[in-house]
Amino acid sequence: MTKPTLLVSACLLGQPVRYDGQSKPLSSPRWTTLRQRFDLIPVCPECLGGLPTPRPAAEIVGGNGGDALAGVARIQSADGDDVSAAFIAGAERTLNAALQHGCAQALLKANSPSCGNRRIYDGSFSATLRDGQGVAASLLERNGIAVWNETEIDSLLDPEPPQAV
Fold first, then answer.
1. I need a labelling partner for 163 at 20 to 30 A (CA). Which of 72, 92, 106, 155 fits?
2. pLDDT band at 31 (very low <50, low <70, confident <90, very high)
3. How do the domains of the chain map onto residue ranges?
């Protein structure tokens, strides 16, 4: 029987693709279960958009990922460069990878301007989080792909709450 596919942020799988050239591999015991249940498809939207590793940190200014996709907000690097086009291109390539591999779900890095599914940094480069999605997470969800982050692995694996007896 073929396992379902799961799109996963490459940095969570130990690939050094984060803006700082590092990875954020998870040590959750649930990783074993994820690997048993899914074929994992690694992606890094920022790399897919053509950004180098390492690269300056970036944050969404003037909105969230959906706003950036609509051209209302922009993604700015800590150096002041507008990197919106690269983030949007990376989000589109991430969506294409998900569709090509038949992914119905994605497990992405929390708080990222690309991958954050619940919260993102506020655009002030002051380490302040606010509610909102990153660019790739927003595009995936708009296209019917459920997006989880690394703190939600239990919910991803056990989407149904236990029934009271």
1. 106
2. confident
3. 5-156
